[in-house]
Amino acid sequence: MSPTFVEDVINRGSQTEVITPSGVKRVVHSLGSAKVYTEQGGTIVVTVNSLRGGE
After folding, report:
1. Is residue 16 part of a domain?
2. Are residues 14 and 29 in contact, defined by beta-carbon separation less than 8 angstroms?
3. pTM exceeds 0.90, yes or no
4. What's the whole-number mean pLDDT along residues 28-49?
5. Alpha carbon distance 24, 9 (integer Å)
6. Is residue 21 part of a domain?
7. Does 55 score more than 50 pLDDT?
């Protein structure tokens, strides 16, 4: 996934806040089948997932 698309998901996607088992706050940005997980107010991208075919 290109950096431009990741930025688009962060800027235009819906946001859900989650807490990891170790207590770290993350935000899941979702747009279509793409999900971008960030920390520290969106300044650190932790994980990028692009799910296809109902996965």
Report:
1. yes
2. yes
3. no
4. 92
5. 21
6. yes
7. no
